[in-house]
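#lab-general

N.A. 3:47 PM
ok so I finally got the sequence cleaned up, no stray characters, all 203 residues accounted for. can someone with queue access submit it? mine expired

B.Y. 3:52 PM
send it over

N.A. 3:53 PM
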Amino acid sequence: MVARQRAAPPSPPVSKGERRDGFAFRAGRVSLDLPATLAGRLKDTTQELLQTPKDLGRWLIAAGLAAQVQEPTAEELAQARELREALHRLALARARGENFSARDRSILNRWAAEPPPAPQLGPRGLFWAGADIRGLLVTVARDGAELLGGELAERVRTCEQRDCGLLFVDTSRSGLRRWCSMSGCGNKAKVAEFRRRQRQDAR
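B.Y. 4:20 PM
back already:
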């Protein structure tokens, strides 16, 4: 049986770790990592991590989608932000069991309909031919369409840490994962619970 070839890599092929070049990668899918570039969504003030076109280029490299990229244009940065927000709203709707917005579906589908970069075998392994900035964003969009319309859609979660709100795919066997990261938000929650119990015991 010949395995179906994916149009995009299922996970970042090179960089590893939850924090890379100042960006969070805790979601388990690149299409949910892009929304994390607007940090502090549940706080009074958000932090835009894609402030400049150069930041978008850094994120694409940190995400493992390319070893190097040409600096994106201001228009490509605006397009990436639009795609990011559509992905966030769609994933949030999925996590809450709500209907998808027709406008957000249209944005995602418009991107996902474009030709993706072609996988090629080079002297050092896999690379993506024709992977300009737009092509890399197409890869992200296709990953989002496959995720939100596929078998893992029911595993899309929001982190339960009060001020986090990052989206992630729960791939745990039990399906009861609560935090985007055990070493981050999970640890904070455990410390908070430990301190709460200490205060109760001290009364």
